[in-house]
Amino acid sequence: MLQAKRILLIIGGGIAAYKSLDLIRRLQDEGAQVRCILTKAGAQFVTPLAVSSLSQDKCYTDLFSLTDEAEMGHIRLSREADLVLVAPATADLMAKMAHGLANDLATTALLATDKPVMVVPAMNVEMWAHRATQRNMALLQADGIAVVGPESGVMACGEVGAGRMSDVADIIAAVKTHFSGPLGRPLSGLHAVVTAGPTHEPIDPVRYIANRSSGKQGYAIAGALAALGARVTLVSGPTHLPTPKDVDRVDVEQAVDMLSAVEKALPADIAVCVAAVADWHVAGENGQKIKKEASGAPPSIRFAENPDILATLSQHPTRRPALVVGFAAETEHVLDHATRKRQRKGCDWIIANDVSHQTGIMGGDENLVTLISADGAEQWAKADKHAVARQLATRIADWFDHRRKDS
Ligand code: CTP
């Protein structure tokens, strides 16, 4: 399965590094060629000699080695691979990757590579749970880096919880999935349109009506769908977010523009409407800035209804995407409102979430959602928005898989 695949294995400094020795062997058993970089901290746990004996190659450790640079510079090292695998990925290594630091051979190769990167985190429970690590994880995932694990269990330090490096068999499975074409990229050949962010509805040339949507959940979904191989068009209202890897982004301001951009992107197999589209825009043109009245009377603003993008797509007479997914941001009676919203708009699934102020979901990093389909409601565990996105993308892939098998 991994015949002739070139894997650059970066071994970080953690007790789990001993498993990486076995990992080298198992990757070779599958036919892969493994070349290794051992960090300084990694060398505290396994020796360069063991690594080079097993990989049957030089063990690369030094950024400023004259002999290494003459034979195989760090740039070539990072490019002559089909996959860069970081196992164990320590909190420190992940933090450096997330922020683009490059002060040793491993981090320099990671910054210089143009190849897919997969990390296998391994660290203490609290270090893994720390907000800084979770923030770094989110950044890495937004950059399109694949993550394997970590697992929960008893750690070398005696604590119990999430942080243990995945078993070698699971790492091998993830690497195989990565290389297995359609299986690893189950949405390849499908086009997904995702709406995200708020819309800005102008009052006059300097003022507008907006909402608190950050766009984080929609961007994460666009990235997760692309990671599974879909061609993704992200139609985005104004946000401060970077475009996820391999995603085509179209920027819009108002709801009407968002609808035009979505219709222009059709045909699509999948539509996921995550945008917090304003329900109304200001009626009539205010070509000039509205001035205060001498009388002190406030201006009266008239609203007109915006088009409903989700309903338009769901009820499209000729180009309805095969699977249309909407979000229902509610502040009370969440399931009730969301269930009715699914029927009213005519979409296949609704992802319901409680955005009342105390949940901190609007603009925050975590989400607690319930998937509502014709089969009923299913609550998902509270997770960060990237994890929710991955779960949704996987569910979408399963849906298409069943559909293919049924037809
Ligand atoms: N939506 C849309 N176009 C609109 C309004 C909403 O595409 N003009 C989509 C959102 O992207 C989301 C879903 O519809 O997927 C539900 O959005 P929400 O704001 O919760 O619902 P509304 O239709 O605005 O209903 P209400 O404000 O009455 O709760």
From TrEMBL:
The cofactors required by this protein are: Mg(2+); FMN
| Biological or metabolic pathway of the protein | Cofactor biosynthesis; coenzyme A biosynthesis; CoA from (R)-pantothenate: step 3/5; Cofactor biosynthesis; coenzyme A biosynthesis; CoA from (R)-pantothenate: step 2/5
Q: Which UniProt keywords apply?
A: Decarboxylase, Flavoprotein, FMN, Ligase, Lyase, Magnesium, Metal-binding, Multifunctional enzyme
Might you give the EC number(s) for this enzyme?
Answer: 4.1.1.36, 6.3.2.5
Residue ranges of region Phosphopantothenoylcysteine decarboxylase? 1-191
Cofactor remark: Binds 1 FMN per subunit.
Q: Which superkingdom heads the taxonomic lineage of this protein's source? A: Bacteria
- Specify the signal sequence span: none
InterPro entries, A to Z: CoaB-like_sf, CoaBC, DNA/pantothenate-metab_flavo_C, Flavin_trans-like, Flavoprotein
Family from the record = In the N-terminal section; belongs to the HFCD (homo-oligomeric flavin containing Cys decarboxylase) superfamily.
Can you say what this protein is called?
A: Coenzyme A biosynthesis bifunctional protein CoaBC
What organism is recorded for this protein? Iodidimonas muriae
Gene name per UniProt:
coaBC
